[in-house]
Amino acid sequence: AIAMAYLNHDRKTALKLELDDSKGFLWNDNKRIESVLRSASEEEITHLNTDPGAVATMASIKNSFWTSDKYVFNTLLDQSMSREDRATKANAIRLFGAMDGWGTDEAEVKRLLQEAATPEERARLRAQFNADAAARNSSWATDTKDRRDEDDREDGKGAADALDRALTDDFGSGEVHYVRELAKEQRDETAVNMGKIAEAADGMGTDE
């Protein structure tokens, strides 16, 4: 039914069916749900927010989500923002989640930073991350003398905001300069490429 709806160019029906199909007895396919919502046009998001059948599906999915997944879900349906701004905010939420708490999903952090391909996209991602960190009362958003002194002790000189602090806190000295370069609005692509080479070589061993 899903494939047929897509073949018939009935994307509104196809998206609802695909979202229904993403629901499980115990667990939902959250990545698939997020992918479907990110792919939806503004008109399709309006349909998901207003069609009675789609609204019921959305409510069922929302009730099964926790923490960041629910935050991303609500963001991708929020039509008070443009489609572009929704995507940026969702990426910022994922970026925060990849570094918050115990452990760091380094691959996810790098993926999200690399996908912000233009200076404008990186500026929007940074601004949204900083706003999200402030809304969560994160220590990364704290701009005090003690925090700045801590930045310096952690080789975070020049940490200007929550995103820089988060990257400094969560990455070791060998990678922090690379990921902070990735996050800059005006990247030094030579430094980025050197970082990629170093990352590719890491773990391969050295025949000294």
What does this structure look like?
- The protein has 208 residues and is mainly alpha-helical.
- It contains 13 helices and no strands.
- It is elongated.
- It starts with a helix and ends in a 7-residue tail after the last helix.
How far apart lie the N and C ends?
60 Å
Strand content: under 5%
Q: Which whole number gives the mean pLDDT? A: 87
Order of helices and strands: HHHHHHHHHHHHH
> Which secondary-structure class do the elements indicate?
mainly alpha
Helix fraction, binned, reads 55-70%
User: Using DSSP, what is the number of strands?
Assistant: 0
Short structural summary:
The chain has 208 residues and is mostly helical.
Q: Which helices and strands appear, and what pairs or packs with what?
A:
Layout: H1 2-7, H2 11-21, H3 30-39, H4 42-50, H5 52-64, H6 67-76, H7 83-99, H8 106-115, H9 119-135, H10 145-153, H11 162-170, H12 173-183, H13 189-201
Helix pairs in contact: 3-6, 4-5, 6-7, 7-8, 7-9, 11-12, 12-13
